[in-house]
Design goal:
The protein has 11 helices and 13 strands. The chain has a 4-stranded mixed β-sheet. A 4-stranded mixed β-sheet has the order 10-11-12-13. Strands 1-3-2 form a 3-stranded antiparallel β-sheet. The longest helix is centred in the last third of the chain and has 21 residues, at about 290-310. Strand 11 and strand 12 (about 245-250) form a beta hairpin. It has 3 domains: about 1-45, no CATH class; about 60-195, Beta Polymerase, domain 2 (2-Layer Sandwich); about 205-310, Endonuclease, Chain A (3-Layer(aba) Sandwich). The protein has about 325 residues and is α+β, with helices and mostly antiparallel strands.
């Protein structure tokens, strides 16, 4: 029997092994040989493919969540941060060392190392790839509540992508907020909700929009500009000034060297056309987003370049 045939949502439970007659000694041998990797007590998965540290943390969190739900089924569903991970939404600084579940039908809550089980609430429970999970809107509100102090920006990062991909709507998010009578972190969710914007097309763009607000910059995302017979869509434009802001995320130019080279050439052609049309282009790098001072300095330099050119005309 192949190991893959024993997996349920990438998880092998000890109960499943017993049911097919596999003794514990075989499981221990497979683990020693690297054929199985433990994810929780009495639960294993197969070794992962090559991946980044971020991908590894997400995968491990997803597997721990599924394993715990399987062990506690049908009493719980994935919620909060764990539901955001299961729905495939991005996170930036949220720690993934704790699984969050919600009771389906009772008001008991519990917490232990690496696990919080929340009492049943107004959440809508559905299936995500066969795993009980709260809705995207409920997951976002739960994320915003538990990360209100530690990682408030992640509510916007995950929310922007969920809206952009059509996984939820602003009305559904509003409904999930109103369904909660109160609780820690809900005020922060309410204050951040008006900032959600499906026009932000990446984690980097959501982070930049947040930085722009902190700096008092008024920007409009996804502006279409005609130049030299073509129409170019830019990431952001400053209000009332011909200053374009392009945000270079981690994967903007592709992965392979050929893709990177091709996309960089196309980007240069595009940027040259915009400059000839009278626009100033500011490039904000992923690393710049860690320092609002760098962003402010780059925008200030562009404004200084623009204003003398206007005066000379």
């Amino acid at each position: 029997m192949l190991i893959q045939e024993l997996l349920d949502n990438d998880i092998l439970q000890s109960s499943r092994a017993r049911a097919v007659g596999l003794p514990p000694a075989i499981l221990r041998a497979w683990e020693r040989q690297g054929l199985l990797v433990p994810v929780s007590r009495g639960a294993w998965t197969t070794p992962p493919p090559k991946e980044t540290q971020y991908e590894a943390l997400r995968r491990e969190h997803r597997l721990r969540t599924i394993a715990l739900i399987q062990q506690m089924s049908p009493r719980v569903a994935a919620s909060h941060i764990s539901a955001v991970v299961l729905h495939g939404l991005p996170l930036w600084s949220t720690p993934l060392d704790r699984v969050h579940l919600v009771r389906v039908d009772d008001n008991q809550s519990r917490a232990r190392l690496g696990l919080t089980v929340h009492q049943a609430g107004p959440e809508t429970i559905s299936q995500q790839s066969g795993v009980p999970c709260v809705s995207v809107a409920d997951a976002l509100v739960g994320l915003g509540q538990v990360m209100a102090r530690r990682a408030p920006l992640d509510f916007l990062i995950a929310g922007d992508e969920a809206l952009r991909d059509g996984l939820t709507t602003l009305d559904e998010i509003d409904g999930a907020i109103e369904a909660r009578s109160g609780g820690r972190g809900l005020a922060a969710v309410r204050s951040h909700r008006p900032l959600l914007d499906a026009r932000h097309e990446s984690v980097a763009e959501t982070r930049f929009a947040h930085t722009a607000r902190l700096l008092g910059l008024v920007v409009t995302p996804q502006v279409v500009i005609p130049a030299e017979g073509k129409r170019y869509r830019v990431d952001f434009m400053l209000k009332d000034e011909p200053i374009i802001i392009e945000v270079d995320g981690l994967a903007k130019y592709g992965v392979s060297p050929d893709d990177v080279h091709k996309n960089l050439l196309l980007e240069k052609v595009r940027e040259d056309a915009l400059r000839r049309a009278g626009y100033i282009v500011v490039r904000i790098l992923w690393s710049d987003l860690a320092s609002p001072k760098i962003v402010r300095k780059k925008v200030a330099a562009a404004r200084a370049q623009y204003r003398p050119s206007v005066w000379l005309r």
